[in-house]
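Known limitations

Files may contain more than one protein. Parsers should not assume a single record per file. Below, a two-record file is shown to illustrate correct handling: read the sequence, read the token line, then continue until end of file.
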Amino acid sequence: MFRRFFYMTNLVLRAHVFNWFWRSKSKRRAVRRDVLSSVIPGYLKHYLPAAEFVKETPVIKDDANEKIYSLWLQGEDAAPALVKACARSVRRNCTQELVVLDKKSLFDKIDLPGVIVDKYNQGKIAHAHFADIARVELLHNHGGFWLDATGFVTSPIPDWIINEDFFVYLAGSDTSYKFAYSFMQNCFIRARKGSYLLDAWRAMILEYWKKEPKNFDYFMHQLMFKTLVENDPRAMEYFAKMPHVAQDPTHALWWKYRDMPFDKALFDKVTSGAFFQKTAYKDATNPIPGSFVDVMIKM
């Protein structure tokens, strides 16, 4: 616990207390980003030995039978309209079967250590972080693809992604984005069964949640991946071979255009840079009639 207190104190002092108030807003944000992206991985290095014990197994290439997994704890039928529209978009555009799991069916697909399940049931692991654990466990067990329930798909998953043993989008190049320190995004993951990057990342995540009482940061799982690929020799080698593609095209539509009047030509242009767009269901509870979000829900 002293170690956790030391790193958390260091983070607070450097990111806030000594991040001088007379600096510009953009400068203060940049300082916070740099501190978070260095201090948190420093803390998470403690779990690198879990990755070192992972034994590599042959990667299973079974692309024809792979599925796209998603999770809505209350079940797809009880999901908000936007989430249902996202599921329809996957089924409309992708050849892979979409499996939308709920709180019950999820445990038919994964088998987590009891101590982690207990912490989740006790509220010590938030829903968002439990979903982070679940997606990695699903792909470890079955291989295939993970897509957040709020991923709106506009075209098939590209072959160049399907052909990778492991792929994730990296954090965008727009440094004004307040969460740019997350290093990578995990709303979409491609992982064949047996991928070392996936299995080593999983080992660190499980070891953390077996021992720690709560999360260290909202993006701690993403930063755990950063810690892995910047320090573990095997992970460094595999990560260097993975295509390094920024998440920016997957975030091009929603936050800029969602409330604007729908324009088909603009929609096609903006969505052409990636096969899906990240959305947020809380922004779609009362859509403006005729807006991008309104039309997307009705597609």
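...continuing to the second record:
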Amino acid sequence: MYRQKISTLLIALVLVLPLSNAFAQVDEYGFTRTERNDISAQATEPFQIFDNVYFVGIQAVASYVIKTSEGLILIDTLDGFDGFTENLLENIRTVGLDPAGIRYVIVMQAHRDHYGGLRELKPQLTDATIGMSLLDWERMEGDLGDQSIARDMIIDDGSSLTLGDTTLSFEHTPGHTAGTTSMRFSVFDDGQEYLTYFHGGSAIRTDVPEEIQRFIDDLERIQTIPNIDVTLINHSDIVPAGADDLFVRAERLKNRQAGDPHPWVAPEEWQRWLTEKIAESYEILAEAKAKQGQ
């Protein structure tokens, strides 16, 4: 009788466990909530992409360091979960850079996975200025309340930041957040210069038709910018259909032979991605209008 009860309990557990796994929360990038919060699941090797650009992020979200002749610029700070900031700083050291040399921290969108590390980083990076658009400062402050950090620098549309030999040209590209910021700057591959466009948030997070149309109009404007050879991405799978994601591209870079093209220098893929993103956005716009009976 006792054995029968134990067997019945074991069978019940076998039946229940797959169901509990099936209902585990999964985010838009395919990570479960526990994976997304766990640095042991998220940690990945940092690497140098260009002479002046380094990937120092995690599996779910990218963060980059731009090296200039007068210090470092950190792009995005990842989530503020336990161990994430320590991992970010260690990644910076692993690629041979000193976090104490960070002069600016640029946050491209006010979602936690991009600004979450600010509260821990701010006291450590005492020489760094934090920059974000006004609308995204306001959003972060609304999210964090009295736990938010004080504003350092407001990034205006059309403004620029020059540190030593490097200039970042900013523009507001709302749609993912109201104050999403994108940027252009030069990268170098063994001294060869290429122009980069880094879109701060390319997934629409609004159902207001007018805002979606503005997002589309902006993508169409971006598509006309000449001489863009490289794009950086803040999540690994922001690529056109059939193209390599960030980590596959990193493997190609690691195994690159003399004379091989740089895996990130792909202007045709940049244009194809924009075309696909515009088409996808028009579909989202049509759905939004249909919901509103337009």
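Parsers that stop after the first record will miss the second one. For reference, the second record is described as follows. The chain has ten helices and twelve strands.
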